[in-house]
Amino acid sequence: MTTEPVGDVAAAGPDLSSRTSARSLFVVAILTGSFLLFLVQPMIARMALPRLGGAPAVWNSAMLVYQALLLGGYAYAHWLGRVSVKRQAMIHLGVLAVAALWLPIGLIQANPPPDAEPAIWVPWLLGASIGPLFFAVSAQAPLLQRWFAASAPAQNPYALYAASNVGSFGGLIAYPLVVEPSMALSSQSLLWSAGYALLCVLVALCAWKLPRGAAAVAALPTSAKPGARRFAHWVVLAFVPSGLMLATSTYLTTDIVAVPLLWVLPLGLYLLSFTVAFATGRRLADMLTVVAPLAVLMFGGTMIGGSHDYPFLNALLALLLLFMVAVALHTQMYRLRPEPDRLTSFYLAMSIGGALGGVFAGLIAPVIFDWTYEYPILILAAGMLAPRAFLVPVIGRLWEGDRAALWIRTAAVVALVAIIVNVGLFNPGNLLGPRHENIGFLALSILGLVTIGTRIPFVVVLAGALFLFGGYRALQLSIEGDVRTRSYFGVYTIRDYPAEGIRTLAHGTTLHGTQFLGDAAMRRTPTSYYMPGSGVGLAMQALGALYGPGARVGAVGLGTGTLACYAKPGQAWRFYEIDPTVIRMARDSQKFTFLSDCLPQADIVLGDARLSLAAQRPGSLDLLVLDAFSSDAVPMHLMTREAFATYSRVLAPKGLLLVHISNRFLDLEPVVFATVKGGGWFGAKLSYSPGAADNSEATQSDWIALSRDPGTLAALAARAGDWEEIRSNRKVEPWTDDYASIVPVIRSPLDEF
After folding, report:
1. Are the C-beta atoms of residues 98 and 159 closer than 8 Å to each other?
2. How far apart, in whole angstroms, are the C-alpha atoms of residue 359 and residue 353?
3. How far apart are CA 268 and CA 424, in angstroms?
4. Strand residues in 88-194 grouped as ranges (E)
5. Taking a C-beta distance cutoff of 8 angstroms, is the pair 240, 325 a contact?
6. How confident is the model at residue 243 (pLDDT cuts 50, 70, 90)?
């Protein structure tokens, strides 16, 4: 095992230029493979949207598939280490040739049923579509590093892993910023296939550089095999950043929008951390590792606190925290790396830890926790595993002494944390004034600075901060019982506000429904986005005039079932909902009574709405409401031309489509305008703001009404409301299943300040 970087300068001699050339070749090959590997992740996920739907958890399921395939590729590279490098090259070139049968890259022709379970269909579809290609390319980084170590024993092969992750990061960032906005999916597939052909040529050239004969056999491992304890340590160090990356992805894609642009940010920073941690120059990695515990203490409590006044700032802090943790723990892995002839076992442990972290955060946590408890657990683990260093030498001297003295100081820290947390939570006698939590945070921060070079005392302080700034409230809700529910699609919280006489349902940070708790008349009152003066409220009140007493209504997205209280006898209603947990809450009269009071026999179709509507007979609806929030945004696959074609098919010739576009992060009006333009649709928008006559739970909302019959739209606009013609103040290309980009419609983060 080495503790210092292996020499990275080629030995002097007449073959210096050839060694430099070989190194350049291996670097280019590794960069190309990693670029392709992580370019394909958002590309295939984007292709899967129309088939699997846009639930945020689909992205984490996709990540689990990629991690499993990556583990398989690394295990394969490790298995090849038992034969000579020349034979490894022959075998791997054969694997690349077989995988090429899956070109051009894309999804197989298999459509899941409308009620398909994403946790099953996502792995199956992605594995069958790109499994062999991903497996073959994923083995590139450890395998080519092993070949390089055999070809140039005097050079450091681990530096090539830094280059590998530069390529990975480049592929991820290139997709949403360059590839997706400029190319259709069909062109993206051909581009990737051409890149795969180039990669095969580069691997063949690297194989040509390998030693032959006795030299090839001599390249087999000779150093001491790492023990089980060291292997387990590698696994744990890889586990935490991987799990934290998925937890951060869940936060971003749930509370902003489930699209590759945001999904790649946590993964991109995770990969970039390897580049820093494995770089030949150690200054940046060492500096970030020293300050990482401070970042964990400061930002961990902030994120757990759940303040959502500044969502973009919160997202930035979450990404920064992830990057700092990943750099610190991956740097510790680098410090514990084995000799180059054992590097495949090192990368195998890394991939096992990464896969286990993904399984924990993506599969186990949503089942066993009713809240995102995996986030504070992983932050605590990061505080425990991060390398320790005192920021100031004088603080280090405070902790000098024998074991008994250290335990006494540790006990004092525990007592101080308990006092600070107690006062911060309960503030007996108004001891600290109205801003007692802020004072508690300051006190814990100071105590954290004093303990930052220790292990147990620092973790105690960190646990106190997490408990004070969110953990306590989370545990309270969990203890209350049926207040909070977690499903594959997110965390739902039901809260009562007795002073206002209301009950609310929130998904993540987004309000999904509000109901008054008074008499039957009050309980039936539409609230939030669905007020009588809103776009959807006006459309519901016009149903009888537009379509007669037997109007047929469909609503994409159930929520608490508020819209059901617009239903009239004789009308036919159907809701489309992807999450069975939401259906159970809406039907439970102990939680919300919109359905039981207004539409007890409501017809609810479980599954992704676009797939369900595609299976419905043409012309079967008069009004369709598109209100399918993925936390705070309509999923992208429901806003494409192909999706609107499905809505047009299922609507009657004079049917009406209501699209809810209220959004904190995206300006969706230009998307609708560009997507329906030239498609025979006529549209109008109504921006509703609560007035003095509205109830206290009215919410500002934006709705777009679309119809293929201008007379229907004119009749709706003539009844009431300040309807305006839809327009676009941004240059936005129409969204299709083959092309879509949110870059042009992102609202400025400055809007929140």
Report:
1. no
2. 10
3. 37
4. none
5. yes
6. very high
**Distance, CA of 380 to CA of 104 (rounded, Å):** 44
What would you measure as the largest C-alpha separation in the chain, in angstroms?
93
Strands 701-707 and 651-660 come out as: antiparallel
CA distance between the termini of the chain: 51
By 3-state DSSP, what share of the chain in percent is helix, strand and coil, each rounded to 5?
60, 10, 30
Q: List, in sequence order, every residue forming a beta bridge with 725; answer none if it has no partner.
A: 684
Q: Is the pLDDT of residue 679 over 90?
A: no
DSSP letter assigned to residue 691: -
Query: ∠248-251-255 over CA atoms, to 5°?
Result: 155
114, 117, 118, 121 alpha-carbon torsion, rounded to 10°: -90
ω before 104 within 30° of 0 (cis)?
yes
Cβ-contact 643, 574 below 8 angstroms: no
Token reading at 738: 């083959």
Sign of the dihedral through C-alpha 273, 279, 284, 286: positive
pTM of the model: 0.75
Q: Is the pLDDT of residue 302 over 70?
A: no
The DSSP H or E segment spanning 369 is: none
| Spatial strand order in the sheet of 502-507 | 484-487, 490-497, 502-507, 510-516
Mean pLDDT confidence for 531-559: 93
pLDDT, tens digit (0-9, with 9 covering 90-100), for 683-734: 999 999 887 767 778 888 999 999 999 999 999 998 888 899 888 777 888 8
For 444-477, the pLDDT digits (tens) are 888 888 888 888 898 898 888 888 877 777 787 7
How many residues in total does the chain contain? 753
